[in-house]
Amino acid sequence: MRILVVEDEPTLAGQLKQALDAAGYAVVTADNGEDAHFLGAVETFDAVILDLGLPRMDGLTVLGKWRADGMTVPVLILTARDGWHEKVAGIDAGADDYLTKPFHMEELLARMRALIRRAGGHASASLACGPVVLDTRAGRVSLNGQPVSLTSHEFRVLAYLMHHQGEVVSRTDLNEHIYAQDYDRDSNTIEVFIGRLRKKLPAGLIETVRGLGYRLVTPE
Q1: 138, exposed or middle or buried, with CB in 10 Å at 0-12, 13-18, 19+?
Q2: Same-domain pairing of 130 and 99
Q3: What per-residue confidence (pLDDT) applies to 72?
Q4: What is the DSSP letter of 169?
Q5: 165 & 71 share domain
Q6: Which residues carry this modification: 4-aspartylphosphate (predicted)?
Q7: N or C terminus of the chain with fewer C-beta within 10 Å?
């Protein structure tokens, strides 16, 4: 899952990126509102963490422009301790949740998991497809109750497919959602990750939809 972090304070931005990287997300960062608005308009993200006090274009303006353009990605805004009016303005502008600074990183990660789950129509922190269970909190996968060892990119591919069970997911979609930056992407590696996952998971779990992509289904 791919996250855009918009924060102009370098230390906090670094802490957010480190925590999200460790949790298995692909992270893109921006330190001003103009770059954030551009990235949101041209790139694909599963969620956004948006500070409101940004240089060059404030966060509320960025969010308002995104929503006016039809961008529906879940957005978590970061506000100052005494900025209750910012919280109200942020929610009215289209934010999905907010967090007051300072905050515990564990709470931010929990809120991000919840936003992404809700966007995909999932209520539980654990996603299941037949005998395969992916725990979004612990970043672990099990098969019939036994742990499955996955690389970070294999986990990202499976997580995206699990969040979109029954849907056809193209290689382009997978590329856009598991890598942080354009220069990291190589469409041929998606086939490699899918092939490795098929060796570790039940036969028939990941279907190839010829000419379109892949679909995660409960094996018969």
Answers
A1: exposed
A2: no
A3: 92
A4: B
A5: no
A6: 51
A7: C
